[in-house]
């Protein structure tokens, strides 16, 4: 007998621990390093929908609660509490940026993104915007860093709005079309390619 208790993680148990931990503000998941307790059948789809055992989690407060205890380590995603850490799967980014506001439009503007779970982040040095391109179609996929290594996929309507306020700047001898926020320019597509479209 080892005397060690084996805990089988459950969504309800995680939710209860997360509620207790978040009573005094956002859970300090970056300070928690609990033992790994296995994987839980939770999946976040590309559109930001959370699934548990194959069914969508329909309660927005529960999704927000789970999102507050989300952590990424070495490219893997976990839900963590002070006493347990369980692995989950994420199809793309764990969040979707569904809207943004622009403060002080122009060269000194700040773009503040809002995610589908209510997080906000000012794009800038701490929360960069990056764009990947689909290898076959060239379709852009824009992301913004939200917190502690976690990113949001910028939804299509917001991306089109960003394009409307974009500008051109030279980087390393190439002209890029991109977005400026919090004193940083974030390249999105080479201007030459933009002219081809």
Features:
six-stranded mixed β-sheet, alpha+beta, single chain, 197 residues, disordered N terminus
Write the topology of this structure.
Elements: H1 11-21, E1 36-44, E2 50-52, E3 55-56, H2 60-68, E4 70-73, E5 76-80, E6 85-90, E7 95-103, E8 110-115, E9 120-122, E10 129-133, E11 140-147, E12 150-154, H3 156-164, E13 167-171, E14 174-181, E15 184-190, H4 191-196
Parallel strand pairs: 1-6, 7-12
Antiparallel strand pairs: 1-2, 2-3, 4-5, 5-6, 7-8, 8-9, 10-11, 11-12, 13-14, 14-15
3D architecture notes:
It is elongated, with a radius of gyration of 19 Å. With 197 residues, it is an alpha+beta fold. A six-stranded mixed sheet has the order 3-2-1-6-5-4. A six-stranded mixed sheet has the order 9-8-7-12-11-10. The protein has a three-stranded antiparallel sheet with strand order 13-14-15. It contains four helices and 15 strands. The chain has helices at residues 11-21, 60-68, 156-164, 191-196; strands at residues 36-44, 50-52, 55-56, 70-73, 76-80, 85-90, 95-103, 110-115, 120-122, 129-133, 140-147, 150-154, 167-171, 174-181, 184-190.
Tally of helical runs: 4
Question: What's the order of the H and E elements?
Answer: HEEEHEEEEEEEEEHEEEH
Question: What portion of the residues fall into strands of 2 or more residues?
Answer: 35-45%
Q: What structural class do you assign from the helix and strand content? A: alpha+beta
The whole-number mean of residue pLDDT values reads 90
Describe the strand arrangement of the main beta sheet, using strand numbers: 3-2-1-6-5-4
Task: Give the number of DSSP strands.
Answer: 15
Taking the sheet with the most strands, its summary is: 6 strands, mixed
